[in-house]
Amino acid sequence: MPKTYTREQARIGVRAGEQFTVELESNPTTGYQWQPDFDPAALRLVGRDFSLARAAAGAAMAVGGGGIERFRFESLAAGTSRLSFAYQRAWEPGVRDQAQFEINAAG
C-alpha cells in the first residue's frame, strides 16, 4: 500500500518506481478542486478520488459536505522534483489555496 502524505508533510521521500498518495481537504460541491502540476518525466498521476469526511459519532453525513481529495502518483526517475496543487474553480481566474511538495526519489 502506498504511503500517504498531507500538506503538513511537504517533503516526500520515495524510490524510483514507487507509488505514494497525497491527501488534501476539499469540497468539490463548491466548484473548487485541486489541480496538480508536476514534471511528467518525474511523476505519473495514477489515480484520483474523493471521499466525504467522516461524521462525528451520532451525526449524519451532510450532503454537499467537504472531505478528502486523494491523488496517487508513481515516481518515474531518481532525483528531486516539485509537485504543486492549486485549489481553484475552472471557470474563475485566480487560486484560492495552494499546496507545495518536494519529491526526493532515490534510484
Average of per-residue pLDDT values: 90
Number of domains: 1
Given helix and strand content, the structural type is mainly beta
Largest sheet: 4 strands, mixed
> Order of strands across the biggest sheet?
1-3-6-5
Give the N-terminus to C-terminus distance in angstroms.
Answer: 20 Å
CATH topology: Immunoglobulin-like
* The first-level CATH class name: Mainly Beta
Features of the shown structure:
107 residues; 8 strands; mainly beta; globular; four-stranded mixed β-sheet; single chain
Describe this structure in words.
This protein is mainly beta. It has one domain (3-94): Immunoglobulin-like (Sandwich). It contains no helices and eight strands. The protein has strands spanning 3-5, 11-15, 19-26, 32-38, 43-52, 67-75, 79-89, 97-106. It has a four-stranded mixed β-sheet with strand order 1-3-6-5, with no helix packed on it. Strands 2-8-7-4 form a four-stranded mixed β-sheet, with no helix packed on it. A hairpin with a 7-residue loop joins strand 7 (79-89) and strand 8.
